Amino acid sequence: MIRRATAEDLPEILRVYAAARAYMKANGNPNQWGDSHPAQPLLEEDIRLGRLYVDDTDGVHGVFALVFGEDPTYAVIEGGRWLNDAPYATIHRIAADGEKPGVFGRSIAFCRAQCGNLRIDTHHDNRTMQHLVEKAGFARCGIIYVEDGSPRIAYQYTAQEG
Predict the structure, then answer these.
(1) Distance CA 100, CA 107 (A)
(2) Does residue 35 sit in helix, strand or coil?
(3) Any idea what DSSP says for residue 73?
(4) For the whole model, what pTM was predicted?
């Protein structure tokens, strides 16, 4: 079951992100989140703003942010273009602890039910996420740059296209 995260979920959310970072490092992606991303203050802000969600299937096993509105890092895209310029929501910081199957699928289904026009991005080294995102029907649209200037592969899903 996907539900909005609460402050009481924070210890489990931090555990999920630690497991995800360990998986990323073990699978050739040590740089995307390093040792501490996402930082606890950012997660606390996400909870306060009501945009952090957990997959609570016999305990918290997944987490993601669903952010509505224009994302400034998506204003410029290189090597391609967005599928459309319609209002969208962005999925950020999606992670699972690897203990329960289907977290990604349940999370994406929830997001699609909230908004039929979704964007997501991932690091070039995050082959697992690229595979999952493409399998879920997102189209690779180009390269965007996050706040620190590093590139990310950008994807979009539209109910009309997908």
Answers:
(1) 13
(2) coil
(3) G
(4) 0.94
94-136: per-residue pLDDT in tens? 999 999 999 999 999 999 999 999 999 999 999 999 999 999 9
Residues 113, 115, 117, 119, CA torsion sign:
negative
Residue 75, helix vs strand vs coil: coil
- Total domains in the fold of the chain: 1
How is residue 111 annotated by DSSP?
Answer: H
Q: Sign of torsion, CA 43 71 53 93?
A: negative
CATH number at residue 132: 3.40.630.30
Angle at 103 between CA 95 and CA 44, to 5 degrees: 40
Q: Chain centroid to CA 63: how far?
A: 8
The amino acid present at 120, given as its one-letter code, is: I
Q: Which residue range forms the structural domain that includes residue 42?
A: 2-158
- CA atoms of 104 and 106, how far apart (whole Å): 6
Q: Which residues contact 12 (CB under 8 A, 6 or more apart)?
A: 54, 59, 60
Round the CA-based radius of gyration of the chain to a whole number and report it: 15
Contact in structure between 107 and 64 (CB atoms under 8 Å): yes
